[in-house]
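hey so i finally got around to running the thing on that chain from the lab meeting. sorry it took forever, my laptop kept dying and i had to restart like 3 times. anyway pasting the input first so we r on the same page abt which one it is
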Amino acid sequence: MLCEGALALHAAEALDNVSLAEEGASQLRFLYPQLVVSMDETAVSLSPDATHTNGQAVISAGPRDCGETLHSKGLPGNTLVYARNGAGQLLPSMVVCGGHKHLPDDFPRADLLANPSRVSDELNDDDPAVPPNVLDLEGVPLKTHWTSNMKSSLNSTLILEWAKICLLPALKACGLSAEKPAILLYDGVQTHVSLEFIETLREENVHVFLRTPHMTALLQGEDTVVFP
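ok and heres what got predicted. didnt touch it at all, straight out
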């Protein structure tokens, strides 16, 4: 479905002369990889006091980024919403803090950024060095969004909040337009993806594609690379 949809949106072109016999080969080339986004979420604790080894999650921007270890056991939960694009850039993350209806004004709000030494060389020939984070018009990485609810769980309201505050500004900074539509890949959890979410993004030229059920552990890069 993704292949057919990307071709119909003129976001990709078919490569009929490529053989799939080679490892990593693809018969589809995305024309605007910076506008193809994959996202997922994981439970973490941002406290250094949570040191249980069986609760570690290593968060990285990609296979060449050593990442940062966050701990996910023993303390009130938090949810990290993570997304990256086809050019290898990290979009602004969202952190949902548990145990709070509203975050206090003095709550520390750090920016979670990819390793600055990591760059991608796969965007195009004219701009070979792609910053590891999506930047605004002034060249500054877009900020991490901090929010909260009592359960720290992601729901349809919060994923819409993520789309408006994190996803859409990042895509617009990458050239989103009617002529250059974006694609969002997600796992399709029913409690997350609502009709309002899909329609809101479609109005902004962002098209949501849901992964095949029960296959995310194999097909979703966040599960295989980012949250090992």
